[in-house]
Specification:
Blueprint lengths: L1 H5 L1 H4 L10 E2 L10 E4 L4 E4 L3 E2 L2 H6 L6 H13 L6 H7 L7 H5 L6 H14 L6 H13 L12 H5 L13 E4 L2 H5 L2 H13 L4 E2 L9 H6 L2 H15 L4 E4 L2 H14 L9 E4 H10 L3 E3 L9 E4 L7 H14 L7 H25 L3 E2 L18 H4 L1 H17 L4 E4 L2 H13 L5 E4 H7 L3 E3 L5 H5 L10
Parallel strand pairs: 5-6, 5-7, 7-8, 10-11, 10-12, 12-13
Antiparallel strand pairs: 1-4, 2-3, 9-14
Protein backbone atom coordinates (compact mmCIF):
# COMPACT_ATOMS: atom_id res chain seq x y z
CA UNK A 1 0.00 0.00 0.00
CA UNK A 2 2.98 2.29 0.60
CA UNK A 3 3.77 2.66 -3.11
CA UNK A 4 0.12 3.37 -3.94
CA UNK A 5 0.09 6.05 -1.23
CA UNK A 6 3.18 7.62 -2.80
CA UNK A 7 1.24 7.89 -6.06
CA UNK A 8 -1.84 9.45 -4.44
CA UNK A 9 -1.30 12.90 -5.95
CA UNK A 10 -0.94 11.31 -9.39
CA UNK A 11 -4.12 9.29 -8.91
CA UNK A 12 -6.10 12.41 -8.06
CA UNK A 13 -4.59 14.30 -11.01
CA UNK A 14 -6.67 12.19 -13.40
CA UNK A 15 -9.64 14.22 -14.72
CA UNK A 16 -11.28 11.20 -16.42
CA UNK A 17 -11.18 12.80 -19.86
CA UNK A 18 -11.08 9.31 -21.44
CA UNK A 19 -8.21 10.15 -23.81
CA UNK A 20 -6.54 7.04 -22.39
CA UNK A 21 -8.86 4.72 -24.31
CA UNK A 22 -7.51 5.80 -27.71
CA UNK A 23 -4.44 5.78 -29.90
CA UNK A 24 -3.85 9.21 -31.48
CA UNK A 25 -6.18 10.70 -28.85
CA UNK A 26 -5.16 14.23 -29.78
CA UNK A 27 -5.22 13.67 -33.52
CA UNK A 28 -8.79 13.20 -34.76
CA UNK A 29 -7.64 14.15 -38.28
CA UNK A 30 -4.77 11.61 -38.32
CA UNK A 31 -4.39 10.18 -41.83
CA UNK A 32 -4.87 6.44 -42.07
CA UNK A 33 -5.55 3.49 -44.33
CA UNK A 34 -9.31 3.48 -43.98
CA UNK A 35 -11.76 0.80 -42.92
CA UNK A 36 -10.64 -2.82 -42.77
CA UNK A 37 -12.72 -5.90 -42.00
CA UNK A 38 -10.50 -8.17 -39.95
CA UNK A 39 -10.84 -11.59 -38.34
CA UNK A 40 -11.97 -10.00 -35.07
CA UNK A 41 -13.85 -6.87 -36.08
CA UNK A 42 -14.05 -4.05 -38.61
CA UNK A 43 -11.81 -1.12 -37.64
CA UNK A 44 -11.53 2.34 -39.16
CA UNK A 45 -7.78 2.97 -39.22
CA UNK A 46 -7.82 6.75 -39.27
CA UNK A 47 -8.13 9.43 -36.63
CA UNK A 48 -8.54 8.25 -33.03
CA UNK A 49 -8.92 4.49 -32.59
CA UNK A 50 -9.95 2.55 -29.47
CA UNK A 51 -6.69 0.93 -28.31
CA UNK A 52 -7.03 -0.14 -24.66
CA UNK A 53 -7.08 -3.94 -24.96
CA UNK A 54 -9.01 -4.51 -21.70
CA UNK A 55 -11.57 -1.86 -22.55
CA UNK A 56 -12.07 -3.31 -26.02
CA UNK A 57 -12.39 -6.84 -24.63
CA UNK A 58 -14.71 -6.22 -21.68
CA UNK A 59 -16.43 -2.95 -22.53
CA UNK A 60 -17.36 -1.88 -18.99
CA UNK A 61 -16.02 1.40 -17.60
CA UNK A 62 -14.07 -0.35 -14.81
CA UNK A 63 -11.89 -2.16 -17.35
CA UNK A 64 -10.79 1.00 -19.16
CA UNK A 65 -7.92 2.84 -17.49
CA UNK A 66 -10.17 5.65 -16.25
CA UNK A 67 -12.19 3.06 -14.34
CA UNK A 68 -9.10 1.57 -12.72
CA UNK A 69 -8.03 5.05 -11.62
CA UNK A 70 -11.46 5.46 -9.98
CA UNK A 71 -10.84 2.17 -8.18
CA UNK A 72 -7.43 3.38 -6.97
CA UNK A 73 -9.00 6.64 -5.79
CA UNK A 74 -11.74 4.76 -3.91
CA UNK A 75 -9.21 2.44 -2.24
CA UNK A 76 -7.10 5.42 -1.12
CA UNK A 77 -10.13 7.29 0.22
CA UNK A 78 -11.46 4.22 2.07
CA UNK A 79 -14.66 4.01 0.02
CA UNK A 80 -13.69 0.60 -1.38
CA UNK A 81 -11.87 -2.38 0.08
CA UNK A 82 -9.80 -4.94 -1.77
CA UNK A 83 -11.62 -8.15 -2.61
CA UNK A 84 -11.56 -10.87 -5.22
CA UNK A 85 -14.10 -8.86 -7.19
CA UNK A 86 -11.75 -5.86 -7.26
CA UNK A 87 -8.84 -8.17 -8.19
CA UNK A 88 -10.82 -9.60 -11.09
CA UNK A 89 -11.26 -6.13 -12.57
CA UNK A 90 -7.72 -4.80 -12.12
CA UNK A 91 -5.94 -7.97 -13.30
CA UNK A 92 -7.19 -8.30 -16.92
CA UNK A 93 -5.00 -5.37 -18.00
CA UNK A 94 -1.94 -5.90 -20.17
CA UNK A 95 -0.21 -2.81 -18.67
CA UNK A 96 0.70 -1.87 -22.23
CA UNK A 97 1.03 1.81 -21.28
CA UNK A 98 -1.18 3.17 -24.07
CA UNK A 99 -3.18 5.05 -21.42
CA UNK A 100 -0.03 6.69 -20.06
CA UNK A 101 1.16 7.68 -23.52
CA UNK A 102 -2.15 9.40 -24.27
CA UNK A 103 -2.50 11.21 -20.94
CA UNK A 104 -2.17 15.01 -21.22
CA UNK A 105 -1.85 15.25 -17.43
CA UNK A 106 1.12 12.84 -17.47
CA UNK A 107 -0.46 10.45 -14.96
CA UNK A 108 1.84 7.38 -14.53
CA UNK A 109 -1.00 4.94 -15.12
CA UNK A 110 1.09 1.76 -15.36
CA UNK A 111 2.81 2.51 -12.04
CA UNK A 112 -0.60 3.09 -10.47
CA UNK A 113 -2.10 -0.15 -11.81
CA UNK A 114 0.93 -2.22 -10.78
CA UNK A 115 0.92 -0.58 -7.32
CA UNK A 116 -2.82 -1.25 -7.03
CA UNK A 117 -2.20 -4.92 -7.76
CA UNK A 118 0.67 -5.09 -5.26
CA UNK A 119 -1.53 -3.50 -2.60
CA UNK A 120 -4.25 -6.04 -3.38
CA UNK A 121 -1.78 -8.90 -2.80
CA UNK A 122 -0.51 -7.18 0.36
CA UNK A 123 -4.12 -6.94 1.61
CA UNK A 124 -4.30 -10.73 1.55
CA UNK A 125 -6.39 -11.22 -1.56
CA UNK A 126 -5.02 -14.37 -3.27
CA UNK A 127 -3.67 -14.07 -6.78
CA UNK A 128 -5.67 -15.87 -9.47
CA UNK A 129 -4.83 -19.57 -9.78
CA UNK A 130 -2.58 -19.29 -12.84
CA UNK A 131 -0.55 -16.49 -11.29
CA UNK A 132 -0.16 -18.53 -8.12
CA UNK A 133 1.11 -21.38 -10.30
CA UNK A 134 3.80 -19.33 -12.05
CA UNK A 135 4.80 -17.79 -8.73
CA UNK A 136 5.30 -21.29 -7.30
CA UNK A 137 7.21 -22.45 -10.39
CA UNK A 138 9.60 -19.52 -10.36
CA UNK A 139 10.33 -20.03 -6.67
CA UNK A 140 11.07 -23.71 -7.26
CA UNK A 141 12.80 -23.55 -10.66
CA UNK A 142 13.74 -19.88 -11.25
CA UNK A 143 11.49 -19.67 -14.31
CA UNK A 144 7.69 -19.47 -14.77
CA UNK A 145 7.54 -22.20 -17.44
CA UNK A 146 8.48 -25.14 -15.23
CA UNK A 147 11.70 -25.81 -17.13
CA UNK A 148 14.60 -27.46 -15.34
CA UNK A 149 17.37 -25.06 -14.36
CA UNK A 150 20.00 -27.33 -15.93
CA UNK A 151 18.21 -27.16 -19.27
CA UNK A 152 18.06 -23.37 -19.47
CA UNK A 153 20.91 -23.24 -21.98
CA UNK A 154 20.42 -26.63 -23.64
CA UNK A 155 19.57 -24.77 -26.85
CA UNK A 156 23.06 -23.22 -26.81
CA UNK A 157 24.70 -26.63 -26.49
CA UNK A 158 22.54 -28.03 -29.29
CA UNK A 159 23.49 -25.08 -31.52
CA UNK A 160 27.23 -25.46 -30.93
CA UNK A 161 27.39 -22.33 -28.78
CA UNK A 162 28.46 -24.03 -25.55
CA UNK A 163 31.78 -22.14 -25.40
CA UNK A 164 29.87 -18.95 -24.56
CA UNK A 165 28.29 -20.39 -21.41
CA UNK A 166 30.15 -18.88 -18.42
CA UNK A 167 32.88 -17.47 -20.67
CA UNK A 168 35.21 -16.08 -18.00
CA UNK A 169 37.11 -13.84 -20.42
CA UNK A 170 34.05 -11.84 -21.45
CA UNK A 171 32.97 -8.48 -20.09
CA UNK A 172 29.91 -8.43 -22.39
CA UNK A 173 26.89 -10.56 -21.50
CA UNK A 174 23.70 -11.69 -23.18
CA UNK A 175 20.74 -12.08 -20.84
CA UNK A 176 18.50 -14.54 -22.65
CA UNK A 177 15.37 -14.60 -20.50
CA UNK A 178 12.92 -17.41 -19.82
CA UNK A 179 10.82 -17.20 -22.97
CA UNK A 180 13.79 -17.42 -25.32
CA UNK A 181 15.45 -20.09 -23.16
CA UNK A 182 12.49 -22.45 -22.82
CA UNK A 183 10.10 -21.51 -25.64
CA UNK A 184 11.36 -19.24 -28.45
CA UNK A 185 14.82 -20.75 -28.60
CA UNK A 186 15.05 -19.59 -32.22
CA UNK A 187 15.35 -15.99 -30.97
CA UNK A 188 18.15 -16.84 -28.53
CA UNK A 189 20.06 -18.89 -31.11
CA UNK A 190 19.74 -16.21 -33.80
CA UNK A 191 20.99 -13.49 -31.44
CA UNK A 192 24.02 -15.55 -30.40
CA UNK A 193 24.91 -16.52 -33.97
CA UNK A 194 24.82 -12.89 -35.05
CA UNK A 195 27.06 -11.94 -32.12
CA UNK A 196 29.40 -14.74 -33.14
CA UNK A 197 29.56 -13.58 -36.77
CA UNK A 198 30.36 -10.10 -35.52
CA UNK A 199 33.28 -11.51 -33.54
CA UNK A 200 31.88 -10.45 -30.17
CA UNK A 201 33.40 -12.13 -27.13
CA UNK A 202 30.30 -12.54 -24.97
CA UNK A 203 29.02 -14.78 -22.21
CA UNK A 204 25.82 -16.52 -21.18
CA UNK A 205 25.55 -16.67 -17.39
CA UNK A 206 24.40 -20.11 -16.22
CA UNK A 207 23.08 -18.62 -12.95
CA UNK A 208 20.65 -16.42 -14.89
CA UNK A 209 17.11 -16.56 -13.48
CA UNK A 210 13.78 -15.02 -14.48
CA UNK A 211 14.08 -11.23 -14.71
CA UNK A 212 10.99 -10.84 -12.52
CA UNK A 213 8.92 -8.89 -15.04
CA UNK A 214 5.76 -11.03 -14.74
CA UNK A 215 5.83 -10.61 -10.97
CA UNK A 216 6.38 -6.85 -10.96
CA UNK A 217 3.35 -6.68 -13.28
CA UNK A 218 0.93 -8.84 -11.25
CA UNK A 219 1.81 -7.42 -7.84
CA UNK A 220 4.06 -10.22 -6.51
CA UNK A 221 6.75 -7.68 -5.65
CA UNK A 222 8.59 -9.83 -3.08
CA UNK A 223 9.10 -12.57 -5.68
CA UNK A 224 10.25 -10.02 -8.25
CA UNK A 225 12.80 -8.47 -5.88
CA UNK A 226 14.24 -11.87 -4.98
CA UNK A 227 14.80 -12.60 -8.66
CA UNK A 228 16.24 -9.14 -9.23
CA UNK A 229 18.81 -9.62 -6.45
CA UNK A 230 19.87 -13.00 -7.87
CA UNK A 231 20.45 -11.52 -11.32
CA UNK A 232 22.30 -8.48 -10.01
CA UNK A 233 24.67 -10.79 -8.16
CA UNK A 234 25.16 -13.09 -11.18
CA UNK A 235 25.82 -10.30 -13.71
CA UNK A 236 27.68 -7.81 -11.46
CA UNK A 237 31.12 -8.42 -13.00
CA UNK A 238 30.03 -7.56 -16.55
CA UNK A 239 30.32 -4.14 -18.14
CA UNK A 240 27.56 -4.42 -20.74
CA UNK A 241 24.54 -6.72 -20.94
CA UNK A 242 22.51 -7.21 -24.13
CA UNK A 243 18.91 -8.38 -24.38
CA UNK A 244 16.65 -9.81 -27.07
CA UNK A 245 13.51 -9.80 -24.91
CA UNK A 246 11.67 -6.49 -24.58
CA UNK A 247 10.20 -7.37 -21.18
CA UNK A 248 13.53 -8.42 -19.68
CA UNK A 249 15.22 -5.31 -21.08
CA UNK A 250 12.56 -3.02 -19.64
CA UNK A 251 12.72 -4.78 -16.28
CA UNK A 252 16.50 -4.53 -15.90
CA UNK A 253 16.68 -0.97 -17.23
CA UNK A 254 13.58 0.67 -15.74
CA UNK A 255 12.31 -1.53 -12.88
CA UNK A 256 15.54 -2.64 -11.21
CA UNK A 257 16.77 0.92 -10.48
CA UNK A 258 13.37 1.74 -8.93
CA UNK A 259 13.58 -1.19 -6.53
CA UNK A 260 17.29 -1.06 -5.70
CA UNK A 261 18.61 0.94 -2.75
CA UNK A 262 18.80 4.68 -3.38
CA UNK A 263 22.60 4.63 -3.17
CA UNK A 264 22.88 1.78 -5.70
CA UNK A 265 23.22 1.91 -9.48
CA UNK A 266 23.05 -0.91 -12.00
CA UNK A 267 26.56 -2.44 -12.04
CA UNK A 268 26.46 -2.77 -15.83
CA UNK A 269 25.00 -0.95 -18.83
CA UNK A 270 22.02 -2.40 -20.69
CA UNK A 271 21.22 -2.40 -24.41
CA UNK A 272 18.88 -4.32 -26.68
CA UNK A 273 20.53 -6.27 -29.49
CA UNK A 274 18.68 -4.21 -32.12
CA UNK A 275 20.44 -1.08 -30.81
CA UNK A 276 23.80 -2.66 -31.63
CA UNK A 277 22.72 -3.70 -35.13
CA UNK A 278 21.26 -0.26 -35.88
CA UNK A 279 24.48 1.43 -34.79
CA UNK A 280 26.63 -0.93 -36.88
CA UNK A 281 24.50 -0.06 -39.91
CA UNK A 282 24.86 3.68 -39.33
CA UNK A 283 28.62 3.33 -38.95
CA UNK A 284 28.92 1.28 -42.15
CA UNK A 285 30.23 -1.81 -40.36
CA UNK A 286 27.52 -4.15 -41.67
CA UNK A 287 25.25 -4.48 -44.69
CA UNK A 288 22.90 -7.23 -45.86
CA UNK A 289 23.04 -9.73 -48.71
CA UNK A 290 20.47 -9.88 -51.48
CA UNK A 291 17.96 -12.71 -51.11
CA UNK A 292 15.59 -14.03 -53.78
CA UNK A 293 13.18 -15.54 -51.24
CA UNK A 294 12.64 -12.22 -49.48
CA UNK A 295 12.78 -9.87 -52.47
CA UNK A 296 9.43 -8.15 -52.94
CA UNK A 297 8.01 -9.42 -49.63
CA UNK A 298 6.01 -6.81 -47.77
CA UNK A 299 7.30 -6.56 -44.20
CA UNK A 300 5.78 -4.64 -41.30
CA UNK A 301 7.00 -4.07 -37.74
CA UNK A 302 5.28 -4.39 -34.37
CA UNK A 303 6.73 -2.13 -31.65
CA UNK A 304 6.80 -4.16 -28.40
CA UNK A 305 5.26 -2.12 -25.58
CA UNK A 306 8.24 -2.77 -23.32
CA UNK A 307 10.93 -1.54 -25.69
CA UNK A 308 8.69 1.06 -27.29
CA UNK A 309 6.10 2.99 -25.35
CA UNK A 310 7.40 2.06 -21.88
CA UNK A 311 10.79 3.54 -22.68
CA UNK A 312 9.11 6.58 -24.24
CA UNK A 313 7.06 7.18 -21.10
CA UNK A 314 10.23 6.75 -19.01
CA UNK A 315 12.06 9.36 -21.13
CA UNK A 316 9.12 11.71 -20.56
CA UNK A 317 9.19 11.05 -16.81
CA UNK A 318 12.91 11.88 -16.72
CA UNK A 319 12.16 15.32 -18.18
CA UNK A 320 9.32 15.81 -15.69
CA UNK A 321 11.61 14.86 -12.79
CA UNK A 322 14.17 17.40 -13.99
CA UNK A 323 11.49 20.11 -14.06
CA UNK A 324 10.14 22.04 -11.08
CA UNK A 325 6.65 21.57 -12.51
CA UNK A 326 5.08 19.79 -15.47
CA UNK A 327 6.61 22.29 -17.90
CA UNK A 328 9.41 20.97 -20.12
CA UNK A 329 10.65 21.40 -23.68
CA UNK A 330 8.51 18.95 -25.66
CA UNK A 331 10.95 19.26 -28.59
CA UNK A 332 13.60 17.46 -26.57
CA UNK A 333 11.21 14.60 -25.88
CA UNK A 334 10.07 14.41 -29.51
CA UNK A 335 13.68 14.29 -30.70
CA UNK A 336 14.52 11.54 -28.22
CA UNK A 337 11.44 9.52 -29.15
CA UNK A 338 12.18 9.82 -32.85
CA UNK A 339 15.74 8.63 -32.35
CA UNK A 340 14.56 5.76 -30.14
CA UNK A 341 11.83 4.43 -32.41
CA UNK A 342 14.08 4.82 -35.45
CA UNK A 343 16.51 2.13 -34.26
CA UNK A 344 14.63 -1.01 -35.41
CA UNK A 345 13.45 0.92 -38.48
CA UNK A 346 17.06 1.66 -39.40
CA UNK A 347 17.55 -2.10 -39.74
CA UNK A 348 14.37 -2.59 -41.77
CA UNK A 349 15.19 0.28 -44.13
CA UNK A 350 18.64 -1.20 -44.73
CA UNK A 351 17.03 -4.58 -45.40
CA UNK A 352 14.73 -2.81 -47.84
CA UNK A 353 17.72 -1.29 -49.65
CA UNK A 354 20.02 -4.33 -49.65
CA UNK A 355 17.63 -7.30 -49.68
CA UNK A 356 14.67 -5.94 -51.59
CA UNK A 357 11.92 -6.28 -48.99
CA UNK A 358 9.17 -3.64 -48.94
CA UNK A 359 8.89 -2.10 -45.48
CA UNK A 360 5.32 -0.98 -44.76
CA UNK A 361 4.23 0.58 -41.47
CA UNK A 362 0.93 -0.33 -39.80
CA UNK A 363 -1.44 2.46 -38.78
CA UNK A 364 -0.74 2.36 -35.04
CA UNK A 365 3.01 2.65 -34.50
CA UNK A 366 5.60 3.91 -32.04
CA UNK A 367 3.95 5.57 -28.97
CA UNK A 368 0.54 4.74 -30.47
CA UNK A 369 1.38 1.11 -31.26
CA UNK A 370 -1.30 -1.48 -30.47
CA UNK A 371 -0.24 -4.10 -27.91
CA UNK A 372 0.37 -7.76 -28.84
CA UNK A 373 -1.74 -8.86 -25.87
CA UNK A 374 0.88 -10.90 -23.98
CA UNK A 375 2.09 -8.74 -21.09
CA UNK A 376 0.89 -7.82 -17.62
CA UNK A 377 0.24 -11.44 -16.64
CA UNK A 378 -2.58 -11.65 -19.21
CA UNK A 379 -1.07 -14.34 -21.44
CA UNK A 380 -0.86 -16.66 -18.43
CA UNK A 381 -4.04 -15.62 -16.68
CA UNK A 382 -6.43 -14.80 -19.51
CA UNK A 383 -5.16 -16.60 -22.63
CA UNK A 384 -8.30 -16.19 -24.76
CA UNK A 385 -8.37 -12.43 -24.20
CA UNK A 386 -4.64 -12.32 -24.88
CA UNK A 387 -4.93 -14.11 -28.22
CA UNK A 388 -7.92 -12.07 -29.36
CA UNK A 389 -5.86 -8.93 -28.73
CA UNK A 390 -2.96 -10.41 -30.73
CA UNK A 391 -5.39 -11.17 -33.53
CA UNK A 392 -6.49 -7.51 -33.58
CA UNK A 393 -2.83 -6.60 -34.11
CA UNK A 394 -2.49 -9.21 -36.85
CA UNK A 395 -5.60 -7.70 -38.48
CA UNK A 396 -3.72 -4.41 -38.62
CA UNK A 397 -0.76 -6.09 -40.32
CA UNK A 398 -3.15 -7.77 -42.77
CA UNK A 399 -4.65 -4.36 -43.50
CA UNK A 400 -1.34 -3.18 -45.02
CA UNK A 401 -0.87 -6.43 -46.94
CA UNK A 402 2.06 -7.71 -44.89
CA UNK A 403 3.64 -11.03 -45.84
CA UNK A 404 5.92 -10.93 -42.79
CA UNK A 405 5.12 -9.44 -39.38
CA UNK A 406 8.35 -8.67 -37.52
CA UNK A 407 9.02 -7.68 -33.94
CA UNK A 408 11.92 -7.72 -31.49
CA UNK A 409 10.58 -9.61 -28.48
CA UNK A 410 10.13 -13.38 -28.09
CA UNK A 411 7.01 -12.88 -25.96
CA UNK A 412 5.38 -10.71 -28.66
CA UNK A 413 6.61 -13.27 -31.22
CA UNK A 414 4.86 -16.08 -29.35
CA UNK A 415 1.53 -14.33 -28.97
CA UNK A 416 1.42 -12.90 -32.49
CA UNK A 417 2.52 -16.22 -33.96
CA UNK A 418 -0.14 -18.15 -32.04
CA UNK A 419 -2.88 -15.71 -33.07
CA UNK A 420 -1.63 -15.71 -36.65
CA UNK A 421 -2.05 -19.49 -36.74
CA UNK A 422 -5.24 -19.77 -34.67
CA UNK A 423 -7.15 -17.11 -36.59
CA UNK A 424 -5.53 -17.89 -39.96
CA UNK A 425 -4.08 -14.48 -40.70
CA UNK A 426 -1.75 -16.03 -43.26
CA UNK A 427 1.51 -14.23 -42.46
CA UNK A 428 4.93 -15.30 -41.27
CA UNK A 429 5.96 -13.93 -37.86
CA UNK A 430 9.70 -13.32 -37.39
CA UNK A 431 12.04 -11.45 -35.13
CA UNK A 432 14.17 -9.00 -37.11
CA UNK A 433 17.41 -10.62 -35.94
CA UNK A 434 15.84 -14.03 -36.45
CA UNK A 435 15.10 -13.09 -40.07
CA UNK A 436 18.68 -11.91 -40.57
CA UNK A 437 20.01 -15.21 -39.22
CA UNK A 438 17.45 -17.49 -40.87
CA UNK A 439 18.15 -16.16 -44.35
CA UNK A 440 21.89 -15.62 -43.77
CA UNK A 441 21.62 -11.92 -44.60
CA UNK A 442 24.44 -10.50 -42.49
CA UNK A 443 27.31 -9.05 -44.51
CA UNK A 444 30.03 -7.94 -42.09
CA UNK A 445 32.16 -5.14 -43.52
CA UNK A 446 34.17 -4.56 -40.35
CA UNK A 447 33.94 -6.43 -37.06
CA UNK A 448 33.38 -4.10 -34.10
CA UNK A 449 36.09 -3.98 -31.45
CA UNK A 450 35.29 -4.65 -27.81
CA UNK A 451 35.95 -1.00 -27.01
CA UNK A 452 33.47 0.04 -29.70
CA UNK A 453 30.76 -2.12 -28.14
CA UNK A 454 31.53 -1.04 -24.58
CA UNK A 455 31.30 2.61 -25.64
CA UNK A 456 27.83 2.16 -27.16
CA UNK A 457 25.15 4.24 -25.48
CA UNK A 458 21.39 4.37 -25.85
CA UNK A 459 21.57 7.75 -27.56
CA UNK A 460 24.18 9.64 -29.52
CA UNK A 461 25.93 12.24 -27.32
CA UNK A 462 24.42 15.70 -27.70
CA UNK A 463 26.57 18.15 -29.60
CA UNK A 464 28.05 21.00 -27.58
Amino acid sequence: MERLQELKNDVFRCIHCKACRFAYSGKPSQKGIGEYEGKQKTVLYEGMVDSCPAGIEYGWEAFWNAGKIWIARSILSGDLEFSESVRDVIMPCITCGMCSAQCENKVPTVDIIESLRAACVEAGVPMIDKHQLVDRLVKELNNPYGGKAGERFQWAKDAGLEKYIDNKDATIGYYVGCTASYRQKNIAEATCKIFEKLGINFTLISDEVCCGSPFFRVGAVDTAQELMNKNLESFKNLKKVFFSCAGCYRTFTIDYPKWMSEDEDLPFETLHAFELIAKLIKDGKIKFKANKELKGKKVTYHDPCHTGRHFGVDFEQELIDQSKNLMFDIRKLDQKLEEWFDKPRTILRQLEEDVGIEFQEMYRIKMNSMCCGAGGGVRAGYPDFSLRTASLRCDEANAVGADILTTECPFCWRNLSDANELYEHGMEVLGILEMIDKYDLLDVQEKPSEDYILELTRFEPEEE
